[in-house]
Amino acid sequence: MAIREILEVPDPVLKQVSKPVEVFDDALKTLVEDMFETMYDAPGIGLAAIQVGVPLRVLVIDLQPDDPDAEPEVCNHGGHQHTHQPTIREPRVFINPEILDPSEEHTVYQEGCLSVPEIYADVERPSTCRVRYQDLDGATHEEAMDGLLATCLQHEMDHLEGILFIDHLSRLKRQMALRKLEKLRRAA
Ligand code: NI
């Protein structure tokens, strides 16, 4: 496994439309493993392959944040004793996902994105939807989604079309967000 570089705005690669996965091989499994490692390291709750520069229709999601109140675990590997927080992971992989039946009812969530660091803004999306997708073995599944999972999945689906969450904002708000990001980068 390896942590890959996350592309950030205004990298033109993020505007590419991703291609369907046709081969379900070890290279795909490695890509997904690397995407999880990269996402957990960031940390974030969702990542599309294009965000690490791979234009394939692959998404990973894990809505479980680390639990800061959990009892630390004492570990002895690596020859020295140390503690770390136990983490409950709920890794989800969506390959060639399609959204079906988006609800007429919409929900507003404050979204952020690893490719638009430090910027958060309200985005309105259908509250519920169904998703049809393939797993790492190429088997097809369908699932109903609501809440944060529905929002996160739709945000990640946008990446496959080269769309970022700030593209849903008014021109003025988008320019303000990008200017704020520039300022933060200069300060860093
Ligand atoms: Ni994103």
Describe this structure in words.
The structure is a single chain. The protein has 3 helices and 9 strands; from the N terminus they run H-E-E-E-E-E-E-E-E-E-H-H. The protein is of the alpha+beta class. It starts with 25 loop residues before the first helix and ends with a helix. The chain has one domain (12-187): Peptide deformylase (Peptide Deformylase, Alpha-Beta Complex). The protein has helices at residues 26-41, 147-160, 171-187; strands spanning 46-48, 58-61, 73-75, 82-84, 92-100, 106-113, 116-126, 129-134, 140-145. The strands form 3 sheets. Strands 1-2-5-8-9 form a 5-stranded antiparallel sheet. Strands 3-4 form a two-stranded antiparallel ribbon. It has a two-stranded antiparallel ribbon with strand order 6-7. Strand 6 and strand 7 (116-126) form a beta hairpin. The chain is globular and about 55 Å long. The model has no long low-confidence stretch (mean pLDDT 93). The structure holds nickel (II) ion (NI). Residues 113-115, 155, 159 line the site of nickel (II) ion.
Strand and helix map with partners:
Blueprint (H helix, E strand, L loop, with lengths): L25 H16 L4 E3 L9 E4 L11 E3 L6 E3 L7 E9 L5 E8 L2 E11 L2 E6 L5 E6 L1 H14 L10 H17 L1
